[in-house]
Structure formats: C-alpha cells, structure tokens
Write a structure and sequence with these properties.
Elements lengths: L2 H7 L4 H8 L3 H9 L6 H10 L15
Length: about 60
Amino acid sequence: MTLADYLQAHGLTAAEFARRIGRSRSTVARWCNGQRHPDAAAMRVIMDVTQGAVMPNDFFSSAT
C-alpha cells in the first residue's frame, strides 16, 4: 500500500501523519507524490506507525 493510499484510507492528512512521525508536512507530501523517498530511519518509523501496511518496497514503482 502506498503512503498516500494509507493516509486516505485512514482519513489522515500529510500534516497529521507528519506530526505522528516527527517530520514536516512537506516531507510527507513529497513522499506521497513520489518526489522523494524516505531514508532508512524514516522507513522504519513508517512501517511501525502503519503497522506494516506501508513497506519500503511500496515507495518504488513496480513498473519495468
């Protein structure tokens, strides 16, 4: 599940999620838009907060 899909499914804004994980709203928005990828530490936090619903592979396109 993408982070954007997770936020939508749980009724969260980028700002609300950012507060939960200690990052900025703009950073979370960039992750959702595919402009940036989270670093390893952020990915671990995202996995924990989403209880595994969003995994590192979800940030990378599966298109070949």
